[in-house]
Write a structure and sequence with these properties.
Structural class: alpha/beta
CATH superfamily: Aldolase class I
Organism: Lithohypha guttulata
CATH class: Alpha Beta
Cofactor: Zn(2+)
Number of strands: 8
Number of helices: 12
EC number: 4.1.2.13
Radius of gyration: 18 Å
CATH architecture: Alpha-Beta Barrel
CATH topology: TIM Barrel
Strand content: 5-15%
GO molecular function: fructose-bisphosphate aldolase activity; zinc ion binding
Catalytic activity: beta-D-fructose 1,6-bisphosphate = D-glyceraldehyde 3-phosphate + dihydroxyacetone phosphate
């Protein structure tokens, strides 16, 4: 019988829930991102989740996974490893079988509702058999042409309490709701977040699952917007371009005339500063 309370990622997110803050989950694509995340966590005395996409497994099999797991084990503060947006049953099972992941997002949101639920339940059970906690989302929306989200589509995928209940029944530990947040471009008006909807979802199922923020792009999210989401019930916040853009910026500016080892150190330092900023914004600083 799976006991999620023994899982490190679960413990980290539960601590955030009880402490009224959100733990940053940093999307990492390379060793520099992993190091930046762990070093920031140690510097700020903050917990952190290192997140890898399926791309990392397809690109390097278990190399980055095991590197992240080793960094997490050796850290002086709580660090866990999570896979974001595993979108096929084969990838979920492959990630679970690799070892090294504490959590996996079982993202079957591109399937129709019934198949989404049935596949999610089956894969959640598989992950549980490996001691891995799971995350899921009821629906998915991305920006459309010219970065303008289709309003009718947006309304159609906003999570309802009934949908939240259906996903809780699959056995997940974490839920990524749609409350106006978007994967990708928000369009000219920026995020139109329905925080009352989020609060309603937390009221409905927050005794059984924790809530995850997706779509927190650097162009749109600042400290106030993050704090509004945390105050409404988010306890895990996925962070991507806020950190990884720092890597790209340094590479563009300095790659042509900087020794490689120094360049790698500089990009790691720049990313670490951005992770630390997010920890301050999310309230996780000093909580380790």
């Amino acid at each position: 019988m799976f006991d999620p309370s023994q899982n490190k990622a679960y413990q980290i997110v539960e601590h955030a829930h009880k402490g009224g803050y959100a733990v940053p989950a940093i999307c990492c694509y390379n060793i520099e991102g992993i190091l930046a995340s762990v070093r920031a966590a140690e510097a700020k005395k903050s917990p952190v989740l290192v997140q890898l996409f399926p791309w990392a497994v397809e690109y390097a099999d278990g190399v980055l996974v095991h590197a992240a797991a080793e960094a997490a084990r050796n850290a002086s503060v709580p660090v866990a490893v999570h896979m974001d947006h595993a979108q096929t049953p084969d990838m979920v099972r492959r990630a679970a079988d690799l070892g090294g992941f504490d959590g996996i997002m079982v993202d079957m949101s591109h399937y129709e509702r019934e198949e989404n639920l049935s596949k999610t339940k089956e894969l959640v059970e598989y992950c549980a058999s490996k001691g891995i906690v799971t995350e899921a989302e009821p629906g998915r929306i991305t920006g459309t042409e010219d970065g303008v989200a289709d309003i009718a589509e947006l309304q159609s995928v906003l999570t309802t309490p009934e949908q939240a209940e259906e996903f809780v029944a699959t056995g997940i530990q974490w839920l990524a709701p749609a409350f106006g947040n978007v994967h990708g471009k928000y369009g000219p008006q920026g995020p139109q977040l329905e925080l009352d909807r989020l609060r309603g979802l937390v009221s409905a199922v927050g005794d059984r699952v924790r809530f995850v923020l997706h779509g927190a792009g650097a162009e749109y999210f600042d400290e106030k917007r993050f704090r509004d989401c945390v105050d409404a019930g988010m306890v895990k916040a996925n962070i991507n371009d806020i950190v990884n853009d720092a890597y790209l910026h340094i590479m563009r500016e300095k790659a042509a005339n900087t020794p490689l080892t120094k360049l790698l150190e500089e990009v790691t330092d720049a990313m670490q500063k951005q992770v630390e900023l997010c920890m301050d914004w999310l309230g996780s600083t000093g909580k380790a």
